[in-house]
Design goal:
With about 450 residues, the chain is an alpha+beta fold. It has helices at about 25-50, 160-170, 180-185, 190-195, 235-240, 265-270, 320-330, 405-440, and strands at about 50-60, 65-75, 85-90, 95, 105-110, 115-120, 200-210, 215-220, 225, 230, 250-255, 285-290, 295-310, 345-360, 360-365, 370-375, 380-400. The strands form four sheets. Strands 1, 3, 4, 8, 13, 14 and 17 form a seven-stranded mixed sheet that branches. It has a six-stranded antiparallel sheet with strand order 6-5-7-2-11-12, with no helix packed on it. β5 (about 105-110) and β6 (about 115-120) form a beta hairpin. The longest helix is centred in the last third of the chain and has 38 residues, at about 405-440. About 25% of the residues are buried.
């Protein structure tokens, strides 16, 4: 027998003599059952360790001088593309009038014919083939008393109908149908406009704005500024040969601020009972408004909340500052803003309240609210006013437990299961022995 070491008295795991051990059938069954339970629970611990969840955090948004992309897809079944203008303005004083870059206008067949897309262009009435190429090289079109636009093909001249319209807008003059304007008669502007009168239009695309309080609107006619006022040339809208006139009935297919959150991410944000969809982020998607009143406008008041999605393994050391990120994003084409190479997404979610009114004023007596009065005047169209929340939501991917937590769980499963199994086996053995003694009496 080997000599005892100084650690012998510290042994907490005393041994029994092999001859004193009793093996029973019930003990074997309990052992097999406990092993199966251990394997099942360890597999559950492993699955739990491998599971990735999204933990939301709420912090103060400390970004400065940032840009934001707005993406829209809106159909207007009762107004042609030529009459629609998209303008953007914000509290910093920046204005974007007649936005075209990144925006497409899709002509739609008349509503009674199904409203299917006809053609896709930026300005269908002013295509390149409409420009007269047979003009004398020395020709300089008349601007009819207005200053020639700065972007004219020939400086100081208005050689196209569109350049005359630009010149009129610069001095806040109404343009109308272009009667007695040589360039417009040559390009058959009024005839082409009348041919589109019963068509609809779908405006889709995206544009960048300053991340400050602002608004964008889609209204009829060319827009221009007259001092502090923002105006639209509404002549062609009001003087419509279409029975019933044009209206701003519209369907919002989608409206979002920033890139779309990937579908695989939205699946992680919800639960089986309450699945999360992009409608939680973009509540105006798939909404419609109907009206037969040409003098009607719709206002949407949006509260925008910055939202970040940080994938598993995202390292804050590699993250760029807001100024650097904004400088880099400005180099990307519209649609890639906010998407990081590491899989992170910088986007926005929003809440919205809406309001609609007739420009003729009156009350909401038909809706049961006689006390609710509306002011007269305004511009028909849809107006989206957005405000920026000072808070930011961060959705961070994380594992439910660390590797050390997984090992701790495995040890707890093995120890707990074997302890319970030993107690059960002991109880079964003692019970069997008592029954055996009773039978022997």
């Amino acid at each position: 027998m080997p000599a005892k070491s100084r650690f012998t008295r510290l042994d907490a795991f005393t041994k029994t003599v092999e001859d004193a051990r009793i093996r029973t059938t019930s003990g074997g069954i309990v052992t097999i059952a406990s092993l199966l339970i251990v394997f099942y629970l360890i597999w559950g611990e492993w699955s739990d360790y491998r599971r990735v969840v999204v933990h939301p955090e709420l912090i103060v948004d400390k970004g400065r001088g940032e840009k934001m992309e707005i993406h829209l897809n809106i159909s207007f079944p009762r107004i042609p593309c030529e009459l629609l203008t998209l303008d953007v303005m914000d509290v910093s004083g920046e204005q974007q009038t007649g936005v075209q870059h990144g925006i497409s206008k899709v002509q739609l067949a008349p509503h009674k014919e199904g409203g299917q897309p006809i053609d896709k262009s930026l300005l269908n009435l002013h295509a390149d083939d409409d420009v007269a190429t047979h003009l004398d090289p020395s020709y300089c079109g008349n601007c009819f008393g207005a200053p020639a636009p700065s972007n004219a093909a020939k400086p100081g001249c208005c050689n196209t109908c569109d350049e005359v319209r630009e010149a009129y807008a610069s001095v806040s003059w109404a343009f109308g149908r272009g009667e007695n304007v040589e360039q417009c008669e040559r390009e058959h502007y009024s005839e082409k406009l009348d041919a589109q009168r019963e068509q609809g239009c779908r405006i889709e695309g995206g544009f960048r704005v300053n991340k400050v309080v602002g608004n964008f609107h889609i209204a009829p006619g060319r827009s221009f500024s007259n001092g502090p006022m923002h105006l639209h040339d509404l002549n062609n809208y009001w003087e419509s040969p279409v029975q019933g006139g044009h209206t701003f009935t519209h369907h919002i297919h989608s409206l979002r601020f920033g890139p779309q959150i990937p579908e695989e991410v939205t699946k992680k944000l919800g639960s089986k009972a309450m699945p999360w969809t992009n409608h939680h982020v973009n509540p105006l998607d798939s909404t419609s408004q109907l009206t037969d009143d040409a003098a009607f406008n719709y206002m949407y008041f949006v509260k925008v909340v910055s939202t970040s999605y940080l994938p598993l393994g995202w390292d804050p050391k590699n993250a760029m500052s807001s100024a650097s990120r904004n400088a880099v994003n400005n180099l990307y084409p519209i649609g890639l803003h906010g998407r990081g190479a590491d899989g992170s997404v910088e986007t926005h979610q929003y809440s919205v309240t809406s309001h609609k009114r007739s420009l003729r004023g009156g009350s909401d007596a038909q809706e049961g609210h006689k006390e609710r009065l509306h002011a007269m005047g305004g511009i028909p169209g849809i107006f989206v006013s957005y405000d920026i929340s000072p808070m930011k939501v961060i959705n961070r991917e994380e594992r439910t437990k660390t590797f050390s937590g997984f090992l701790t769980g495995v040890c707890a499963v093995i120890g707990g299961t074997l302890t319970v199994a030993a107690a059960i086996d002991r109880g079964v053995y003692e019970g069997a022995m008592r029954v055996k003694k009773l039978h022997q009496r």
